[in-house]
Amino acid sequence: MLYWALVFLVVAIIAGALGFGGIAGTSAGIAQILFFIFLAFLVLSLLAGLFRRAR
Description:
Keywords: Cell membrane, Membrane, Transmembrane, Transmembrane helix. By secondary structure, the chain is mainly α.
């Protein structure tokens, strides 16, 4: 999932540099959403690992 967030971020940077504002904004928004979903899954995974070791 982090891979796709980075792909959309690169697409947004390239589109922004070429002047495609709508595509750049959409790609940046998608990258931001995917990044935050990745962070949520990371935190859940770390918490699950901590609770599993505590037993």
